Automatic annotation (TrEMBL):
Protein name per the record: Histidine ammonia-lyase
Molecular functions (GO terms): histidine ammonia-lyase activity
A Pfam family recorded for this sequence: Lyase_aromatic
Catalytic activity: L-histidine = trans-urocanate + NH4(+)
Compartment list: Cytoplasm
GO cellular component, one term: cytoplasm
InterPro entries to which the protein is assigned, alphabetical: Aromatic_Lyase (IPR001106), Fumarase/histidase_N (IPR024083), HutH (IPR005921), L-Aspartase-like (IPR008948), Phe/His_NH3-lyase_AS (IPR022313)
Organism phylogeny: Bacteria, Bacillati, Actinomycetota, Actinomycetes, Micrococcales
Pathway linked to the protein: Amino-acid degradation; L-histidine degradation into L-glutamate; N-formimidoyl-L-glutamate from L-histidine: step 1/3
Length: 515
C-alpha cells in the first residue's frame, strides 16, 4: 500500500507505514505544481536588491551578512556541511526514515520555496531504501532538528554517509547510481528548507504513541493476570465504579479491559466466599486509575502530535501571498513537553507492573504461591532475579523521566538563546518505552507461572489463551533453567502483537470502552 504526499499533509499511520514498513511514496501532481509555483516567488526575491533571510543572507547570528548571487550555491553547501555535525552512535533506521518523510511532507506543503526536484529526490531516497547515517547528538530541538536533518540533506547532495535497504553502509554515489538518482545541487533557500523542522522529535513522538497504544492494553492484560495469580477480585473493575463516579475516559477503558479479561475465571470465583480480605492492594485495585491516566496522557500527546503533523514548519516560510518571512515555528517546545510527559507515565506504568510482580514472588503477600514461584524453593531461585531485572529497568525509567524540556543552553552567539531540547526528550522516551515492554514481559512470565500454579483451578478464557500463546516460546513452571531466553521470548511475543491478539481472540478489541 503506497502513501501519497499532497499539500494536505499526511496521517500518523502514513508516517508509521513509511518509517517502519517501507511503504512506497507517491507525490500528488498538484503538490508538485504548487511547489513549483511557490518556487517562482523565491527566485524573484533571490534576484531582487532587497536582502531576504535564508535567500540572500547568512544564517543564525550571521543573518545580517549579504551574500552575492555567485556565492549562494556555495552558501547552501556550506550550510549543510557545517550543520551535519552530529556525534555518537547512529540512530535507528526507522527514526531517520520518519524524519525524512516528515520533512518531505513539509516540502510538499508548498510553504518552503524549494524546487520540485528537491522533494522528488528526497522521496526517491526513501523509496530506494537509502537511509542517511544520523548521529545521536547534535539537535537542541530548536531552529529545527538541525544536525539530524543536515545529515539527511548532505546525502541528498550526494555526500555524507548512508546505508542501503539491508542496512549496509556504502558510498553515497554508489547508492545514487544504483537507484537511478542524481544528487541535488541546492539553490537559494533550499538548505534551510531541508533542516528547519521538528521532524525528528515529531517522528519519534508518533512512533512512541503507536507503541504505547499497544503497551497500555498489554499492561491491562498483564495486570489482570496478576490479579488472577494473586487471588484478587475483579469487582473493583465493574463499570459502575468508573465512568459514572470518576469521568476519566482512560480509566473507564482500562477498567473495562480488565473486567472483560477476567470474565469466566474459576480462579477469581474460587475465593468469593470465605475470603477474609476486604480489598486488594493498590497495585491491583488501582490499576485502571494508573493505566487509565496514562491513556488520557497519550491522548493529549496525540492531540499535540496531530497539530504538529498539520504544520508546515520552516524559517523563513513562504506565505500564501508569496511573502517570505521569518518566524519561530521551529521551536520544539510543544512537542518536547509531551515527550517528557509520556516519559513520566511510562516510568509509572513500569513501576506499577514491577510492584505486582514483586507481590507474586513474596510468600508473605502472594496468597499461597511458593516463594519466588520456585519449583523447590531453596534449591531453586525461581523468578527472584527476573524481578531484579525489572527493578533495574524501572529505576532507569525513573531517571529517564527527568524532563529534558526544562533545560536550555544558549547557542549561535546568543541569537538562539532559548532551545527546547525536544530531540533529547524523544531519545529518552524511546528507551523508556522499550524498558516498559521488558518490564511487562517479566510480569507476563511471572503472572502466567502464578496462574499455572493455581491448578486445578482454571484461568479465564482470555488469560488461558495468552498463556497458551506464551508457552509456544517460553517454558512453564519447573526446576530452574536458563531464564533469559524465556524473558526475551515474552518480550518478543509482546512486541509482535501475539500476546494481545491471543486475548483479543476471546474478548474482542482491548483499549476502548464498549458503548
Amino acid at each position: 500500500m503506497s502513501v501519497t504526499l499532497s499539500t494536505h499533509g499526511v496521517t500518523p499511520a502514513d508516517v508509521i507505514a513509511v518509517a517502519r514498513h517501507e511503504a512506497p511514496i507517491q507525490i500528488a501532481p498538484e503538490a508538485l505544481e504548487a511547489v513549483a509555483a511557490v518556487r517562482a516567488h523565491v527566485e524573484r526575491l533571490a534576484h531582487s536588491d532587497t536582502p531576504v533571510y535564508g535567500i540572500s543572507t547568512g544564517f543564525g547570528a550571521l543573518a545580517n551578512k549579504h551574500i552575492p548571487e555567485e556565492q549562494r550555491t556555495q552558501l547552501q553547501k556550506s550550510l549543510i556541511r557545517s550543520h551535519a555535525a552530529g556525534m555518537g552512535d547512529p540512530v535507528e533506521r526507522e527514526v531517520v526514515r520518519a524524519l525524512m518523510f516528515l520533512r518531505a511532507k513539509t516540502l510538499a506543503s508548498s510553504r518552503t520555496g524549494v524546487r520540485p526536484v528537491v522533494l522528488q529526490t528526497m522521496v526517491g531516497l526513501l523509496n530506494a531504501g537509502i537511509t542517511p547515517l544520523v548521529r545521536e547528538y547534535g539537535s537542541l530541538g530548536c531552529s529545527g532538528d538541525l544536525a539530524p536533518l543536515s545529515h539527511c540533506a548532505l546525502v541528498l547532495m550526494g555526500e555524507g554517509e548512508a546505508t542501503d535497504r539491508d542496512g549496509v553502509l556504502r558510498p553515497v554515489p554508489e547508492l545514487f547510481a544504483e537507484a537511478g538518482l542524481t544528487p541535488v545541487t541546492l539553490e537559494e533557500k533550499e538548505g534551510l528548507a531541508l533542516i528547519n523542522g521538528t521532524d525528528g522529535m515529531l517522528g519519534q513522538l508518533l512512533m512512541a504513541i503507536a507503541d504505547l497504544d499497544e503497551l497500555l492494553s498489554v499492561a491491562d492484560l498483564t495486570g489482570s493476570m496478576s490479579v488472577e495469580a494473586l487471588l484478587g477480585t475483579d469487582q473493583a473493575f465493574r463499570p459502575a465504579l468508573h465512568l459514572p463516579l470518576r469521568p476519566h475516559p482512560g480509566q473507564a477503558t482500562s477498567a473495562d479491559d480488565m473486567f472483560r479479561v477476567l470474565a469466566g475465571s474459576a480462579i477469581v470465583a474460587s475465593h468469593r466466599e470465605g475470603d477474609s480480605r476486604v480489598q486488594d492492594a493498590y497495585s491491583l485495585r488501582c490499576s485502571p486509575q494508573v493505566t487509565g491516566g496514562a491513556r488520557d496522557t497519550v491522548d493529549h500527546a496525540r492531540l499535540v502530535a496531530s497539530r504538529e503533523l498539520a504544520a508546515a514548519i520552516d524559517n523563513p516560510v513562504v506565505l500564501e501571498d508569496g511573502t517570505v518571512t521569518s518566524n519561530g515555528n521551529f521551536h520544539g517546545a510543544p512537542v518536547a513537553y509531551v515527550l517528557d510527559f509520556l516519559a513520566i507515565v511510562t516510568a509509572d506504568l513500569a513501576s506499577l507492573a514491577e510492584r505486582r510482580t514483586d507481590r507474586m514472588l513474596d510468600v508473605a503477600r502472594s496468597a499461597g504461591l511458593p516463594p519466588f514461584l520456585a519449583d523447590d524453593a531453596g534449591v531453586d531461585s525461581g523468578l527472584m532475579i527476573a524481578q531484579y531485572t525489572q527493578a533495574g529497568l524501572v529505576s532507569e525509567n525513573k531517571r529517564l523521566a527527568v524532563p529534558a524540556s526544562v533545560d536550555s543552553i544558549p547557542s549561535s552567539a546568543m541569537q538562539e538563546d532559548h532551545v527546547s531540547m525536544g530531540w533529547h526528550a524523544a531519545r529518552k522516551l524511546r528507551k523508556s518505552v522499550d524498558n516498559l515492554r521488558r518490564v511487562l514481559a517479566v510480569e507476563l512470565v511471572a503472572s502466567a507461572r502464578g496462574i499455572e500454579l493455581r491448578a486445578p483451578l482454571t484461568p479465564s478464557p482470555a488469560t488461558g489463551a495468552v498463556i497458551t500463546e506464551l508457552r509456544k516460546t517460553a517454558e512453564g513452571p519447573g526446576p530452574d533453567r536458563y531464564l533469559a531466553p524465556d524473558l526475551l521470548a515474552a518480550e518478543a511475543a509482546i512486541a509482535s502483537g501475539a500476546i494481545l491478539a491471543a486475548a483479543e481472540s476471546v474478548v474482542g478489541k482491548l483499549g476502548r470502552t464498549e458503548a
